[in-house]
């Protein structure tokens, strides 16, 4: 390590910090980020101070490092925290409720007779029309309608009719 270069670097920082911070402000648009940018850049430059040919190259190299560091920060997906007075998004719904509802529904479906359960699954989870269900199950349209009616009545007893009676969303 060259003590002369260390002294030269310290003098450079003392004399040019404010100018570098103004340059950093123009790059970032925020004073606190400009200060962070200058400090980060000076840290990087300090490690390479002995390889610079002259003291005049120090400022040019520092500004180049600042531009490159600022560009790297800008490219990062996460820009850091931005303090706000109000939270920008509503609280996420609890995923436990969805799991609990699914568990209750599966338990309630398990209490139904097999044909009634199959009818409800075909109607509300597969979103098939009643006529197609009658074909699949080999029964009349009236039997399908009565199985659906009885099945929904049983699920109402379990307070699950809203979860089943809404038509299933087909994934596309």
UniProtKB/TrEMBL annotation:
Domain RNA polymerase sigma factor 70 region 4 type span(s) in chain numbering: 103-155
An individual GO BP term: DNA-templated transcription initiation
Highest taxon, organism lineage: Bacteria
UniProtKB keywords: DNA-binding, Sigma factor, Transcription, Transcription regulation
SUPFAM superfamilies: Sigma2 domain of RNA polymerase sigma factors (SSF88946), Sigma3 and sigma4 domains of RNA polymerase sigma factors (SSF88659)
Listed CDD domains: Sigma70_r4
Family annotation (Pfam families): Sigma70_r2, Sigma70_r4_2
GO molecular function annotations of the record: DNA binding; sigma factor activity
Domain RNA polymerase sigma-70 region: 21-79
Entry similarity comment: Belongs to the sigma-70 factor family. ECF subfamily.
PANTHER family: ECF RNA POLYMERASE SIGMA FACTOR SIGM, RNA POLYMERASE ECF-TYPE SIGMA FACTO
Protein name: RNA polymerase sigma-70 factor (Sigma-E family)
